[in-house]
Amino acid sequence: MKFTRMLTTKLTSFWLMSLAAIAFVFLLSAMMSFVQLTYKFQQQKVAELETMLVDQYQHQPDWDLEAWLPPMLLAYNAVDFRLTLKDEVIFAYEGNLTTQNPMVYDHVLDPKSGLRMQLTLTQPFEHYTFSWYEILILLVGVLAVAALVRFGYLWFSQQLDGIEELALRSRLILQGKHEQALATPGNGKPRLINRALTKLLEELHDAQKERGRFDKFIRSNTFLDAETRIGNRLFLNNRLDALSHNQAMLAHGVIYLLEMDDLDLLQQSQGEAVTKELLNSTVNAISQLLQTQANSIFARRSHNQFAIVVPQISLIEADQFASKLLKICLSQPLPEVDNSDNFFHLGCAYFTAGDNAAQLIEEADMALRAAQLQGNSNWFMYDKGAIDEEFAKGSVRWRSFLENALVQRRFFPFSQPIIDSDGNEHHKEIFTRARDNQGALIRATLFIPMANKCGLMPQVERQIIERVLLLLSNELVGGVQNTQTNKKPASQIYSINLSLDSLMSRAFTQWLKTTLLEYRHLTTRLIFEVSEDIVIQHQEKLQPKLDMIRKMGARLCVDHVGQQVVGTYYIRECHFDLIKLHRSIVRHIHLRPENQLFIRSLIGGLYRTEVQVCAEGVEVFEEWQTLQILGVGAAQGMYFSEPIEAK
Fold first, then answer.
1. Which residues cross the membrane (predicted)?
2. Which of 320, 357, 499, 646 suits a disulfide with 244, CB 3.0-4.6 Å?
């Protein structure tokens, strides 16, 4: 707005100068007119004296000038007077006044007789002094003019300030900061334009919310069951694909198949309303229980069968959870039907890393049939044999391992490049790995859940951030050396994941703020990623923390987008710069038109924003090609590169 302020200053200065010039010309004209009138009045008195002398000469031969002329000349403040007739002085007068700038009137009164008059007068204002009353009137006039000028200046400035505020709101709108422009209506003038801008911004805000609701509607009809509003079979397949790589599970966990055997008979005998009430109460109770299990999956496979996947859970905990699930089902008010005590059956299949994803459903189905053969409502766990010892470590052993790794700084960053549509590297995402005492790498899928349970995730992420800042500092020094050797300096950008525990920790956020201030020359090369489910559940609490990171100069990214069926309004409200599609949406995208529809809807909702859309988990060329056609600007995955240690 610098140009607008300069223009405002120039306009104000020009207006003041014009007003001052008009006032000066007005006062000068008034003074000149007054002086001219005064001289005119003096000339009129001289003309009257001439008329009297001519009249006396023509009608009264005996003038007797001594009787009446001296008092008149004294009243005129005459310096001297001389009346001659054919060069003969017939009357002379010398006053008692002196002047340096006399007014001399030398007129011929009668050309025939040669009557001539010479009158010397003082200047009209030479012996005049201003009274206090006249000075007061003049002072009041000058003050009135000054007050009017001041009032005009303030009024004009106020009007221009209103235009300035309109220009500021317009600049915010052009920059895409619609929320900020709507939040600061100000006192822009003309007010009609300001109110029109506010109304249009409110309608645009409502339209954006409506677009978010429409996107959620599309996603809901694609991935949600219409009756229970939980995931459908397609949603389950996508999420299982995300938990596996090449049909091999990436971590351990358990899958449950819950079946209501006589649901069809219940619907025929009791009606659809009773059946729907039972389904909703059961689904709500199970969903509430699953809130204690992070990244759990709940979906409806068929009319009477539900699937539940709980990753990162031990075998003992899986048995306990199965008992809780069956207990919740049995606690539901079941109408009077035949075999009501044999209505719910639960089949469980425990899996470890490397197990075949397609085989899990078969194993869970086998366990479900075994539970049904046992009679009555019960559950059955499919036993594959020994469980990996790594997963059997107790919380105490894990805490000891993690604390030693923190003290010995055995958490290391691994980076994977994100490639844009031109084939250039956009940035690198940092993944965390740990090394045991023998130097072997520990998978993040193993230690991160335990670190969350032990409350050590803030310390782990703090150590990773310190290592990344060290990498950037070394690259900056190397870039300076390259500049001296006429080589292009390094400008690497890293993205770092932040967990909910870290963002909720006051000590961590205070340390992060201090660190970003200390390394403010590097903050523009940092991107902090937050998971979508964390943002959705804790948006109000996380908003100040995310705003702090953004104000420090770093960028924000939300990942795992599409993992849940939610609206996308939070992307604008939290001012994210990037979003990353979850691998369950990206997997086999070229074969799944429903996932393509979701991506088109998402990108359409982000139209006219600067948010960049990236994809996670790209493994084959067809996936990347389809993503580019849909408008995704960048991607990462095994198709481009595996994570390598950042050194």
1. 12-35, 135-156
2. 357
